[in-house]
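Example record

The entry below shows one chain as it appears in the dataset: sequence first, then structure tokens.
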Amino acid sequence: MTAHEIDYEIFGEEMQYVEIELDPQEIVVAEAGSFMMMENGIQMQTIFGDGSQQQSGFMGKLLSAGKRMLTGESLFMTAYQNQNMRKSKVSFASPYPGKIIPIDLTQYNGKFICQKDAFLCAAKGVAVGIEFSRKLGRGLFGGEGFIMQKLEGDGMSFVHAGGTLARKELVAGEILKVDTGCIVGFSSTVQYDIEFIGGIKNSIFGGEGLFFATLQGPGTVFVQSLPFSRLADRIIASAPRSGGSGRDEGSLLGGIGNLLDGDNRF
């Protein structure tokens, strides 16, 4: 299916949102919870899967939705259709600090692989499927498990990365070693595997886990500086424990420290 041709503009720096301009009857599909605002005349409709199988009958829709369940996403997505006689705009926001990456699938041979929670929205006709790992070690220790998301088609897609974004263009045979959680996505020509860090001290005391990802070119790789899992771990580690109001509550100078650093919570 040929995807709808949509225009867009990305706003912001650390907390970005993307504004999609739809021609009459054009449609964009998005993950639940990513909607920010839209102009009057755009209609929302909840659909099974990604919308690329809407004309294939109930079983086609069910299969599309079932693939999304395997990646940990909802069965449903939301389609936004412009029913005005003029162009109208709808906007989608990033879920946490970082960058929104526009992916023109025609520049990646119609296929792009990304982490399971990176997808934000796409033009109607882009298929959001799954990419199984063919290697047991990669599936068990690769950070993303056996399943990643696969974006296919000839339209625009938008994915989200945490923190600062790095884009690397790898030549044939060139290898980039990356923390498994820092991968955002890569073109289908890139070979993805994992490698043992090695060394007892590195493995036990290094604090970086036992494995890192190896990405071999040719192709394009997007890397994020702040994976959401790392951000969540820091927040959980700093959260108040039961019986106390903060992580320094048990120390003798805990209360004084809060006064000195401006944390005057009641």
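Notes for this example: Helices lie at 57-70, 136-141, 200-205, 228-238, 254-260. The first strand starts at residue 7 and ends at 11.
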